[in-house]
Every structure is written in structure tokens, then in C-alpha cells.
Amino acid sequence: MYLYVNREQMMDKPMRIERLLLLAHIAAMGFGLAGLLLVLPHPEFIANLPDVGQVAFRWSMAGGGVVYMLLGMAAVAVYAYRILGAWHSLTFMVSAIALSLSAELLGTSTGFPFGDYRYLSGLGYKIAGLVPFTIPLSWFYLGFSAYIIVRLGLQKLTWVTWQKEVVSILFGSLLLMSWDFVLDPAMSQTRMPFWLWGQPGAFFGMPYQNFAGWFGTGCVFMTVATLLWRLKPLQLPEGQPVLPLVMYLSNFAFAAMMSIGAEIYPPIFLGLLLGVAPALFFYRLSRSESRSEAVDRLKAVIARDKTDLAAVK
Predict the structure, then answer these.
(1) Longest dimension (CA), the chain
(2) How many domains does the chain have?
(3) What is the pTM of this model?
(4) Does any domain span residue 189?
(5) What per-residue confidence (pLDDT) applies to 290?
(6) Contact 77/89 with Cβ under 8 angstroms?
(7) How far apart are CA 141 and CA 133, in angstroms?
(8) CB 243 within 8 A of CB 82
(9) Helices 242-261 and 277-287, interaxial angle, to 10°?
(10) What pLDDT is stored for residue 239 in this prediction?
(11) What is the pLDDT of residues 246-258, one digit of tens each?
């Protein structure tokens, strides 16, 4: 009994930490939205702020994006460690960060695989003067959230493991790309853009190549992480991926609000169809009861009824 309670207490602390980090991440995104959509378009409001308010606003514009990405990365890292352990959480993190950074460095240098673009200021120190260090962190925490939503949704199906892995990679990459449908046009066309496209594109100023690059990069690092997971036994947890779903939906909402502020609406509907709807489907699937669980529950009910009947007799 003591060991059981102690184990529960040990698990409860990381859960509290990851929830606090998630709430702080969402709050930081909300603060950033307020600055970009409400304060920045009204310079007279900024001019009337006291000195402390103006300093806070300048700080938020310069470092707000860094803070919310760091908080998102930390929340997902704690969650991944809690449910998967050190090996599986670290292998996914390293794969996502290293391979997405490689793709971003290649993209900003050559235009492949995303197209011709360059990052501006506002997202932190640039690695090699090209890619803000926060960008691969966002690939990790959104990529892991998308992948694990699908993987846990498929867990109770009676498919062979490789089928679950392939579907998790494909749909995880689709969810990741669908988030970018909504985020990329607004973040590159806002009053304070965070990156610029050097080539005209048919999708609200962006090339379709960008989305192929997002899907392909997601497939690559999710495949590498999945293969590395095979090196050690993987015990996926029971239950629903609540934090990953909230992480995905809150970041989608942030991107949607940015798009609404820029009066760009079609990508929102496309993202809802290809991103939010599948995410909710797989989350609901993770809540469904497997056939074996249903049989076990029915046997337990029958056994309890027999015990109650014997006690009456």
C-alpha cells in the first residue's frame, strides 16, 4: 500500500508541472496575440502607455515568441518523459529537433524543401545566422503532440504494430502540416512578420512546395523516432492524450486568430478539416473501449452479481 501511494505521488508531481507549463504556454500565446492584434495596430495606445508599459510591450514584441515556444517545448518534454520514459522521449526529441533544424537550414540556404524564405527577428537567436533556435523546438512539441494523439488513438485497435506505426507517421505529419496551413500565411503577412517569402506563391503568398516540405519533414523525423523506439520495449500508457490534444488545439487557435486578424480565412477551414477533425477523431478513438476490455468488464459484472446472489442465499 505504501509503495502504491508513493508511486502515485511520484507520478502526480510531473503531471502538475506539465499542466502548469501548458497553462503558462497558453497564457504567453494569449499575451502575444493581444500585443500583435490589439496593441500593435494602435500606435496611439502604445504612446499613451507609462514607461513601464512601453518597456513591457517592447520586451514582449522582442521575446514573447521565444517564451511561449520554450514553455511549449518544456510542457511536452515533461509529458513525454512521464508517459514514455527517458529513452523514448529523448529519441523522439533529438530526432525532431536535429532533422527539422537540418531541413530549416537547408531551406533557408537553398530553398529546398520549403521554398525561398528567410526569418526575421522576434523568434530568438539564429543558428548560423539563418534559423531561430526556437523553430526546431516548435517542430518537436507540435510534432510529438500530433504523433502521440494518433498513436494512442490506434493503440486499442487489433492491428499489427507496423500498421499502427505507418498510420501514426502519416496522420501525425498531416496534423503538423495542417497547423502550418493556418499559421504560415498570417505569420508572414502580419504587421510584424516573423519570416518573409522570397518567391510568389499561389497559397496566400506561399508556394505549395512549403506544405510538401512540412509533410515530408514530419514523415522523416517521425519515421526515424519510430525506428529508434523499436530498439527498446515500448509500453504505451492507457488513457487519453489530453495534454497533446490541448497543445495542438491551443496552437491551432493561436494560428487561427492570427489568420482572422490578417483577414485570411480559407486556410482556417482547411486546417479544421485536415487537422482538427482528425485530431479529435483519434482522441475519441483513444477513449473507446477495446473488445477485450469490454469482455473483462462484463465478466467482472457477472462475477459481482454471482457473489451478491450467493450472499443473499
Answers:
(1) 84
(2) 1
(3) 0.87
(4) yes
(5) 46
(6) yes
(7) 14
(8) no
(9) 160
(10) 85
(11) 999 999 999 999 9
Exposed / middle / buried, residue 167 (Cβ in 10 Å: 0-12, 13-18, 19+): middle
* 173 contact partners, CB below 8 Å, separation of at least 6: 146, 214, 215, 216, 218, 219, 222
205: its cell numbers: 503568398
Residue 48 maps to a domain:
no
Q: Treating both helix axes as pointing N-terminal to C-terminal, what angle do 86-110 and 134-154 enclose, rounded to 10 degrees?
A: 130
Question: 290: which DSSP letter?
Answer: P
Would you say the C-alpha torsion 81, 12, 247, 238 has a positive or negative sign? positive
Cell numbers given for 141: 512539441
Could you count the other beta carbons within 10 Å of the beta carbon of residue 218? 28
Q: Is 38 contained in some domain?
A: no
* CB contact set of 285 (below 8 Å; sequence gap of 6+): 153, 154, 156, 157
Establish if 35 belongs to a structural domain: no
- Sequence-distant (≥ 6) Cβ neighbours of residue 309 within 8 angstroms: none
Q: Which residues contact 63 (CB under 8 A, 6 or more apart)?
A: 124
**C-beta of residue 95 within 8 angstroms of C-beta of residue 221:** yes
Grade residue 144 by pLDDT with cuts at 50, 70 and 90. very high
- Main-chain phi, psi angles of 206, to 5 degrees: -115, 150
Range of the domain at 182: 84-312
Angle between the N-to-C axes of helices 161-189 and 277-287, in degrees from 0 to 180, rounded to the nearest 10: 140
The amino acid sitting at 62 is A
Long-range contacts of 106-110 (CB under 8 A, 24+ apart): 107/213
pLDDT at 33 over 90: no
For residue 34 the three cell numbers come to 493581444
Rounded CA gap, 126 and 119, in Å?
A: 9
Burial letters for 96-110: b for 16+ Cβ neighbours within 10 Å, e otherwise?
bbebbbebbebbbee
